[in-house]
Amino acid sequence: MSRPQADPYTEARRRLVRLLKEQGFVRSRRIEEALLKVPRHEFVPPEYRDSAYDDRPLPIGYGQTISAPSIVAYMTELLDPAPGMKILEIGTGSGYQAAVLAELVGPRGHVWTIERIPELAEWARRNLEKTGYSRRVTVIVGDGSLGYPDEAPYDRIILTAAAPAVPPPLEEQLREGGRIVAPVGDYIAQELVVGEKRGGRVVYRRDIEVIFVPLVGRYGWQHNL
Questions:
Q1: Contact present, 116 and 92 (Cβ < 8 Å)
Q2: Bond before 153 cis per omega within 30 degrees
Q3: SS3 of residue 98 by DSSP
Q4: Residue ranges making up the domain that contains 166
Q5: Which among 147, 181, 167, 174 is positioned nearest to 71, based on CA atoms?
Q6: What tens digit of pLDDT does each residue of 144-194 get?
Q7: Is 67 an annotated catalytic residue?
Q8: How far apart are alpha carbons 84 and 25 in whole angstroms?
Q9: Which one of 28, 51, 67, 134 is the catalytic residue?
Q10: In a domain, 157, yes or no
Q11: pTM score, two decimals?
């Protein structure tokens, strides 16, 4: 009987996660395990596979990028997803962040993720299918700044594209007691904000400076609509 083919990137993934722990981006055991399980090399174009476990963003086409692993880890720690949660992600890209979230919410939870570029959304669907996460993730093509009211309210909402301010529809679709993490600012640089909904109102605190591609949409940037 032949043995299953080993993942040639396993050791590179382990080294990366060790580095992220040492640097403080990974703090919890659950998120460490999720990053060890999700094969980032399956979510980058073939020509960048050998760089999949470098801690840097990589191009994925259409002017978009897959975020650096340190940023994925850090934002996931801030989001604090738990098993069984309903999560809305704005900005699917290649599907990597959605896969990490799917790993964390487990079979009783679900992730809805919105991508405005149809070709990227289809690629993300294929990536999630081949890595075994498609049952826990629904990919939607649309204006992410409007959210997805059909499945609201959500326990957690995460934006992986920068907005001038957190879109009001997303605040409305957040469950009472829920949390939202988003990069907010201008085209040049942004800050991560972390909001919690209490008494029907989302209260924010500011975190680190970041750089993300812009969120395009009714409550984002208006170009190319």
A1: no
A2: yes
A3: helix
A4: 10-210
A5: 181
A6: 999 999 999 999 999 999 999 999 999 999 999 999 999 999 888 899 999
A7: yes
A8: 24
A9: 67
A10: yes
A11: 0.93
Pairwise CA distance, residues 176 & 94, whole Å: 30
What CATH number has the domain bearing residue 181? 3.40.50.150
H/E stretch holding 57: none
Tokens, residue 5: 């083919």
Q: Is 202 within 8 Å of 166 (Cβ atoms)?
A: yes
Is residue 53 a part of any domain in this protein? yes
Tokens of 215: 């969120």
For the record, the structure tokens of 78 come out as: 């801030």
- Burial (0-12, 13-18, 19+ Cβ within 10 Å), 195: buried
Q: 126-129 long-range contacts, Cβ below 8 Å, gap at least 24?
A: 127/42, 127/43, 127/94, 127/95, 127/96, 127/99, 128/95, 128/98, 128/99, 128/102
Summarised one tens digit per residue, pLDDT across range 114-154 is 999 999 999 999 999 999 999 999 999 999 999 999 999 99
